[in-house]
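Re-run with default settings, no changes from the original entry. Doing this only to confirm the output is reproducible before filing.
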Amino acid sequence: MIAGLLEAVCCRLKKQLDKKRNKIDKKRMSIFQVSDRTLSVSVLVLPEASMMCVASVLDPLRAANRVSGQMLFDRSLYSLDGEPVPLTCAVPLHVEGRFEGHLRGDLLIVVAGFNQQLHVNSASLARIKSAASGFKAVAGVEAGTWILARAGLLNGHLATTHWEDFEAFTATFPDVEVKTDRFVIDGNTMTCGGASPALDMMLQLIRLRHGTPLALNAASVFVYDEAHAQTDAQPLVSLGRLVGTDRRLETAIRMMEERIEQPLPIAALAQRVHVSTRTLENIFRQSLGQPPGKYYLGLRLQSAFRMVSDSDNSIHEIAIRTGFGSLSAFSRAYSKRFGISPKRSRVKSQVKNLR
């Protein structure tokens, strides 16, 4: 009789243990596996995020629900204070409520853009970190990757961010392995570099959970062709319709991107593209309406403008990193291009950020 009682107790304990294990396994189950279960998606949008990034996150999921006729994705939109979020286009984005640390769900997506460090203080970061523990996966869109990294959620993971921030992000977060890919899915994390990669990333989520046909149908709602692979590098210049027009133009521009700090002479560039200098001049004039030297200079100055506005590098260091032999030559070129000196440009950007 005692043996029978012990067996019953053991059986009951085994059932309880199995039940707990099933709960744990269910919680740990990747959201990137095939499933018809409704996925609960919470999206936190920060001020100065791009409307295109927000739309690239939300609309593919809406389209998937629409074309499937099912509630495959349940989306909720939040801001840190529960108030409408001012986006970069000056349109306020209305949300469903205040983002709280006790929020729970399947996927937490953080969408951020400019000045993320000003919009998320230590208290807000603690809320985000607390909430993230209640989700099966987290995602960062554009500067949202910075927020996840600041919260320690990307340590030991592969990740990406917007191409303008690769160098600064790598230096700031040495425990995160930065990829130049359009988007990265690693374990229970997703990150991407901007609006177009965000659309690709969300379509990939749809594809992994519900198959390629649904992902294609969702993309077709936006008359969107997925022309890039996940691992395609983010370019400094989006060539768009120029791609395929003349491969020599694309090759030359990509070489320019790679040699911002140590610019190649145009003759050397032409040699690497396997054309004469005159032919390269004609290619650029016909496609872009300007000679390669002028285009190259503009590319370097745009890089300088971003560093002046968004980095703490000294003006002299920026001059060196954009291929100028002297500070005076850099200042002249910068002033001619933007109508303001580098120093005054920096002051102007700092005043703007304080408003």
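Residues 20-28 have pLDDT under 50 and may be disordered. The longest strand covers residues 39-45.
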